[in-house]
Specification:
Layout: E1 13-16, E2 23-26, H1 35-48, E3 50-53, H2 60-70, E4 73-74, E5 88-91, E6 117-124, E7 132-136, H3 137-142, H4 146-152, E8 156-160, E9 171-175, E10 177-179, E11 186-188, E12 196-199, H5 204-218, E13 224-227, E14 234-238, E15 242-246, E16 256-262
Parallel strand pairs: 2-3
Antiparallel strand pairs: 1-2, 3-14, 4-16, 5-16, 6-14, 6-16, 7-13, 7-15, 8-9, 8-12, 10-11
């Protein structure tokens, strides 16, 4: 007999938002989610990269409680806490000139162990605009030619923190193709273009054409989802398998969201089977 906390909320449904990336979960209250529901949401994030749950109007402490059920929290060194809960960070409108997230990027890629999931809850939204774009990096990898995928094997890019409040001192190296441990899937792993120094073993001049191609290839419309925020939205995504871009087109209107990040593993590239292209 199933325990009460293992019972699946009966109305939960998952609906794809594009042919490639994104899903909406309905029939669930994150504040009351049981263990089985949390696992279904985790599975949906892994499968669809980005998941939205609407009409939640979740308070920060409830967001924290739910997030900790997905895994331990983490923060980015150098970014000061701005809420009473050190696990949470308030993203607000600082003006377009300071909109550091208005480019394609992956949260925390300049860390040795970047976050796995991010959870973002809407609190105050502009009248229009402020969308967040996502691209599926597994789709980007699979849509490369077999020859190009072989070219990327074993290649590592160097990333240097310089725009997200952590200064210029931190530099790390990550594989250009990383493996998602829960699924074994391979995905491109690029981060923010201004933070990518080069590909190890190549000069910056040699690296740039390859990196420019990969960024252009990864951000094609066929692998993209554009999220139009609504009051009460909670958005969750897999940083390991998706890049995102916060569009700043709302002038000086207020836009406040609360973010929580879940601890991830050190990026790795699993060995290739003989039959893999």
């Amino acid at each position: 007999m199933a325990r009460a906390d293992e019972h699946v909320q009966t109305g939960l449904e998952i609906r794809k938002l594009t042919g490639t990336i994104g899903a909406e979960v309905t029939g669930v209250s994150l504040c009351d989610a049981d263990g089985a529901t949390v696992e279904r949401i985790r599975s949906a994030i892994l499968a669809h990269r980005v998941v939205v749950v609407r009409n939640q109007f979740i308070e920060p402490e409830r967001q924290l409680s739910f997030g900790l059920r997905l895994g331990p929290f983490m923060t980015i060194p150098g970014i000061e806490a701005n809420l009473p809960w050190r696990e949470l960070f308030k993203i607000t409108n600082l003006g377009k000139e300071k909109a550091a997230a208005e480019m394609w990027h992956t949260d925390g890629i300049t860390l040795e162990q970047p976050p796995s999931f991010s959870i973002l809850a809407a609190h105050t939204l502009p009248e229009a605009g402020g969308d967040t774009l996502f691209v599926d990096m597994g789709h980007a990898y699979r849509s490369l030619s077999p020859a190009y995928r072989r070219l990327l094997r074993g290649q590592r890019a160097r990333h240097r923190a310089q725009r997200f409040g952590a200064g210029n001192a931190r530099e790390v190296s990550h594989p250009l193709v990383r493996t998602i441990p829960e699924t074994g899937e391979r995905v491109l792993y690029l981060g923010a273009a201004p933070n990518v120094v080069d590909i190890e073993g190549m000069t910056a001049a040699e690296s740039r054409p390859l990196l420019d191609f990969l960024f252009a290839h990864a951000t094609r419309p066929d692998g993209m989802y554009r999220h139009r925020w609504q009051p009460g939205d909670v958005l969750m995504w897999d940083n390991r398998a998706a890049m995102h871009y916060a569009v700043h087109d709302y002038g000086d209107e207020p836009r406040d969201l609360v973010r929580m990040m879940i601890e991830g593993e050190r990026p790795f590239e699993a060995p290739y089977a003989q039959e893999e292209a």
